[in-house]
Fold this protein.
Amino acid sequence: MGLLDGKRLLVTGVLTDRSIAFAVARVAQEEGAEVVLSSFGRQMKITSTIAKRLPEPAPVIELDVTSEEDLAALEGRVREHVDGLDGVLHSIGFAPKEAMGGNFLNTAWSDVATAVQISAYSLKSLSVAALPLMANGGSVVGLTFDARVAWPVYDWMGVAKAAFESTARYLARDLGPKGVRVNVVSAGPLRTTAATSIPGFETLEGTWGERSPLGWDVTNTEPPARAALALMSDWFPATTGEMIHVDGGFHAMGS
Ligand code: NAD
């Protein structure tokens, strides 16, 4: 018996097999879930190719979280493959280069706005678009990089993540009465496309392994994936608005 037998999950954010979302989709299938992937624009083709590396074939539907048209079409596109959803993974982040890497004092609002729309507001957009599919309740899980503190080089992406974490708490408030839980997993640094495109990412991953009591492997996306799936299982029935650290214990240590 798998942890997720009978669960129907929408997994956004599979770009490469190093994407955190890829590990989520793979382990979800291994645990008995039915998985629908989403991708957008020119990345649709790449995601479809990468999807073939999963244990089972998974359909890929189109969803650009900034597109009102895609958001309105989401329910119909998902229903072509499954009759509803029990879980939704938000694994989406983007900030223009000008918004990261040490340019904090000079970043233009238009670049900040892009980061906040794609990386934070999209959690609301995705959750609301998927709501009609979760008539019997469900679990929305997002991925963050602990935004309670300021980091080197993360800059406006860190501000967007703070908004993202807050958005999860407000969604937890408004969707709880509908039986939908909303939580985030705060992962340590992982060498994915999104992360390695941050100018100076090495300074973030730097001493993470040494400072974490459990150690940390920047190439292993399975720990945050497992936590996300645990939150989508029936084993966190009374948890919402929470941030769970999957960072080797880094957050709990003083310097
Ligand atoms: P990734 O590059 O593999 O995934 C990022 C995804 O965002 C891509 O699949 C991309 O298609 C998607 N995306 C960007 N703009 C989009 C849009 N407009 N509509 C729909 N999708 C869009 O990198 P990842 O590290 O797996 O990132 C997944 C999540 O994990 C992000 O929220 C990221 O901030 C978070 N996270 C990453 C790390 C890390 O160190 N890698 C640590 C903590 C949290």
